[in-house]
């Protein structure tokens, strides 16, 4: 909101900043209320309900123009994939867990697949049976990569729908990066939260709604200070999600969730810009992680003490 002072469109910056703050406060209120009325398990169950309802509505909207099964399975590329590890590690599993896992696997999102691969480190913080499975899969995967070669493996998986492995095969994100770098040179203080993104991107005939990357969005909107703020944010979230204050029972799920949400913010419209695309799942994942941290650090020990008394 402070960037309204130097924004190229004061009203738009103010509205989008208010929109982000309002949605964040709503999410914080929801998570706080869930912890107040229940426990950690209830919060996770509600999260699964929220994701499932979002998937159902996404598929319903898609049914208005297609009945192609593969297209329908790709309608939740950001929401389902962000909470893939929450659905995978939650026990006991229900039908919605399998729905979220299936939607994630068939999302056909390169960004999500990279995030899910990165999120596999979370298995080392979870149940032993998952650790054994990851070690076996890693050994098999390592053998396959060694046999066919790293380039062929990546080309046939992550970049399976691209002509080659290149930044130029990122559906215009390389051009957006050029705009962000030019913006830093021309105006190190930025063009104003969100307003600068359509202002510059449309002038370059790119047609993108925003930077499709939290750091690009920050560079265009708030310049160098914006990039520093985003880096501090992600580093702080990384420290939070690995904290001992988060219950070991849920730490693996939330670590996986963070990894995917981080990649979503690096390759899709996520945190750092307006409410759109990956912003909702990424911000909810952020608030959820902070909720578990605050509960474990300040309230869980108090409730245990009261129970003992």
Automatic annotation (TrEMBL):
Which residue numbers delimit the O-antigen ligase-related domain?
Answer: 99-230
Q: How does it sit in the membrane?
A: Multi-pass membrane protein
Xref: Pfam families: Wzy_C
- Keyword Cell division (UniProt): no
Alphabetic keyword roster:
Ligase, Membrane, Transmembrane, Transmembrane helix
Transmembrane portions of the chain: 12-31, 43-63, 70-89, 95-118, 130-154, 215-238, 279-296
Subcellular location field: Membrane
Kindly list the GO molecular function terms attached to this UniProt entry.
ligase activity
GO CC annotation terms, alphabetical? membrane
UniProt xrefs under InterPro entries: O-antigen_ligase-rel_domated (IPR007016)
Supply the name of the protein.
O-Antigen ligase
Species annotation: Alistipes timonensis JC136
What high-level taxonomic lineage is stated for the organism?
Bacteria, Pseudomonadati, Bacteroidota, Bacteroidia, Bacteroidales
């Amino acid at each position: 909101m402070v960037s309204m002072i130097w924004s190229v469109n004061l009203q738009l910056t103010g509205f989008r900043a208010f929109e982000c703050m309002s949605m964040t406060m709503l999410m914080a209120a929801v998570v706080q209320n869930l912890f107040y009325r229940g426990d950690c398990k209830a919060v996770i169950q509600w999260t699964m309900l929220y994701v499932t309802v979002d998937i159902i509505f996404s598929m319903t909207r898609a049914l208005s123009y297609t009945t192609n099964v593969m297209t329908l399975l790709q309608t939740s590329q950001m929401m389902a994939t962000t909470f893939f590890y929450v659905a995978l590690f939650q026990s006991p599993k229900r039908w919605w867990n399998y729905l979220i896992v299936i939607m994630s696997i068939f999302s056909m999102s390169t960004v999500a697949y990279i995030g899910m691969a990165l999120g596999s480190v979370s298995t080392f913080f979870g149940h032993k049976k998952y650790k054994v499975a990851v070690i076996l899969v890693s050994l098999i995967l390592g053998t396959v990569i060694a046999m066919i070669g790293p380039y062929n493996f990546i080309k046939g998986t992550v970049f399976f729908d691209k002509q080659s492995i290149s930044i130029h095969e990122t559906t215009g994100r390389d051009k957006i990066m050029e705009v962000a770098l030019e913006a830093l040179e021309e105006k190190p203080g930025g063009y104003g939260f969100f307003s600068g993104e359509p202002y510059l991107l449309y002038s370059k005939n790119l047609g993108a709604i925003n930077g499709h990357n939290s750091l690009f969005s920050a560079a265009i909107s708030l310049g160098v200070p914006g990039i520093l703020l985003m880096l501090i944010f992600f580093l702080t979230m990384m420290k939070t999600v690995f904290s001992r204050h988060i219950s070991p029972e849920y730490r693996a799920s939330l670590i996986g969730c963070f990894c995917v949400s981080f990649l979503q913010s690096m390759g899709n419209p996520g945190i750092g810009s307006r409410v759109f695309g990956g912003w909702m799942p990424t911000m909810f994942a952020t608030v959820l992680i902070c909720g578990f941290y605050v509960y474990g650090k300040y309230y869980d020990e108090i409730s245990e003490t009261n129970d003992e008394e």
